[in-house]
Design a protein that fits this description.
The structure holds two protein chains of two kinds.
Chain A lengths: L2 E3 L5 E4 L4 E3 L2 E3 L6 E7 L6 E7 L7 E2 L2 E6 L4 E6 L8 E8 L9 E2 L3 E6 L1
Parallel strand pairs in A: 2-12
Antiparallel strand pairs in A: 1-4, 3-9, 5-6, 5-10, 7-8, 8-9, 10-11, 10-12
Chain B lengths: L3 E4 L2 E4 L5 E7 L5 E8 L3 E10 L2 E4 L6 E3 L9 E3 L8 E8 L9 E2 L3 E5 L1
Parallel strand pairs in B: 2-11
Antiparallel strand pairs in B: 1-3, 3-8, 4-5, 4-9, 5-6, 7-8, 9-10, 9-11
Classes of the chains: A mainly beta, B mainly beta.
């Protein structure tokens, strides 16, 4: 079975600073995908970034980067130059290739507040 | 391109009533799923499907029923609503596999059972 753990309490960051949101995972699959989503107060789910287990380089998408440490089973999201619009709930998720592990499993989420 | 269309957006039910939440996608995704979101609990998987005619239970399936007769549609049925089913429900779809298979979400349904 696969599991995602997000244990940070609500996070606060000053505008224009960088922030790291933690995510650890557990799976028996060798091949898997890791995803981060943002949920603003309006409620929609917005896909941010993807990392494959066999990707040698950390994924980056604009101000978002994923600090992938396979041996430690962690996939932390780094947001650089925080903006007020980054205030939201952030979810880490993963899926495996086949069978029951092909389902997308989410963590409990982390609330990020950006201070002006 | 509509993406994932989920209806209704809001619903109030009385205890014991039944209803169906509709979900349709036009991206030819094999995978479709239903989640419920409750404060502090993240998104919990109710049921999912990896193709037409194939469904399976997720983490919290009790009280819900699904079927998948076509690739496009994946309705969620509440058989006899209970106050514990008050939640926000999301439908999501994606391709299968692990390479760039991010899920696309519907707008969500805020359901209140009184």
């Amino acid at each position: 079975a696969q599991k995602i753990t997000q244990t940070q309490p609500g996070m606060f960051v000053q505008e224009k600073e960088a922030v790291t949101l933690d995510c650890t995972y557990d799976t028996s699959d060798q091949s898997y995908g890791l995803f981060w989503y943002k949920q603003p107060s309006s409620g929609e789910m917005i896909f941010l970034i993807y990392q494959g287990s066999y990707d040698e380089q950390n994924a980056t998408e604009g101000r978002y980067s994923l600090n992938f440490q396979k041996a430690r089973k962690s996939a932390n999201l780094v947001i650089s130059a925080s903006q007020l619009g980054d205030s939201a709930m952030y979810f880490c998720a993963m899926r495996g290739p086949t069978g029951a592990n092909s389902k997308l499993t989410f963590g409990k989420g982390i609330t990020l507040s950006v201070r002006p | 391109n509509a993406g994932v269309t989920q209806t209704p957006k809001f619903q109030v039910l009385k205890t014991g009533q039944s209803m169906t939440l509709q979900c349709a996608q036009d991206m030819n995704h094999e995978y479709m799923s239903w989640y419920r979101q409750d404060p502090g609990m993240g998104l919990r998987l109710i049921h999912y499907s990896v193709g037409a005619g194939i469904t399976d239970q997720g983490e919290v399936p009790n009280g819900y029923n699904v079927s998948r007769s076509t690739t496009e549609d994946f309705p969620l049925r509440l058989l006899s609503a209970a106050p514990s089913q008050t939640s926000v429900y999301f439908c999501a779809s994606s391709y299968l596999g692990v390479r760039y298979t991010e899920a696309f979400f519907g707008q969500g349904t805020r359901l209140t059972v009184v």
